Amino acid sequence: MTFIIIIVALALLFDFINGFHDTANAIATAVSTKALSPRVAILMAAVLNFVGAILFDGVAKNVGGSIADPFHVSNGMEIITATLISAILWNLLTWYFGIPSSSSHTLIGSLAGAVIAGAGMDALHWGGFQKIVLGLILSPFLAFGLGFLMLVLIRQIVKVLGNRSPGKVNRNFRLLQIVSAGLQSFSHGANDAQKAMGIIVFALVAGNFHSDMSVPIWVKLAAATSMALGTSIGGWKIIETVSRKIIKIEPMNGFASDLTSTVILQSGTALGLPLSTTHVITSSIIGTGSAIRYKSINWGVVGKMVMTWIITIPISIALAYVIYQLIFGWF
Q: Which of 135, 110, 136, 137 is CA-nearest to residue 124?
């Protein structure tokens, strides 16, 4: 019982960090265009993250059962402990340097590394792991392309509606951004909070505290609350990188980016796929920015982010493997 309490505490800490690490991306565009004040944006995101988190559980079941089988892993609680320590360390490191890295990538990579360390290569469900990784890889490309098309379409609609002053257009899209930022925050909660839920369920099943992969209501409420609290803290370093260092965000492309991200994240949630909110939102911003002016994007910053995205899963696999061996390898 003490062991499972420690695991639940670590999972909720991961969710709390995820709240201020990833949710910053969800509100960055609205804050940068002054559609919402930082305080209001954070409070709104916290509430909608909570609501989104308690309404879905498909992603949680996928994370909890697709990478390894908790019913046939004798040391599942040790594996989850190493997974969470690894994911928390990487999230804190990238947050400290203001890099919008992916909590999803580090959690999936860490789980794979811990499973290999604790149960061997054969215990890893390569099919499920590859399916999840494929979704994580493809979603940024889809977000970029859809973001590009979304802004082109919106600009054509504005053009058809007639000549309007730039000031009036910006005011209208700032109002729309309030809605789109809310939808994006809800979508983030619906997808991201479930990852911690899945990890907790994995540990509960492995420790014989739960008999199937369904998510208990107390797990939903705890994970949703933890993410909402993390969101309320805010992630200003991440907000600054996403909202200012990639491209100057205007209300129109901010709205288009939010709408694009919502579509991609909700699609992933419906399919039970854990997507990276960070990658989806950032790629949407790059896509809409490219539709305006390709050269206006700070490709140096984008390159550093992409490099972090590429190395996160392999580093997380290695980090979790080493952590497992250091803590439990001598038993």
A: 110
| 3-state secondary structure (DSSP) of residue 74 | coil
CA distances from residue 176 to 57, 96, 181 in whole angstroms, order as listed: 29, 32, 9
Q: What is the DSSP letter of 211?
A: S
What's the pLDDT tens digit per position in 117-141? 999 999 988 888 888 889 888 999 9
pTM of the model: 0.85
Q: Give the mean pLDDT of 216-228.
A: 90
Residue 209 neighbours by CB distance under 10 Å: 14
Q: What is the DSSP letter of 243?
A: I
Please compute, for residue 213, the number of CA atoms within 13 A of its CA located in the half-sphere on the CB side: 18
The residue among 280 and 61 whose pLDDT is bigger is 280
| CB of 197 closer than 8 Å to CB of 60 | yes
Note whether 256 and 145 are within 8 A (CB): no
**205: helix, strand or coil:** helix
Helix crossing, 76-96 with 299-328: angle to 10°?
150
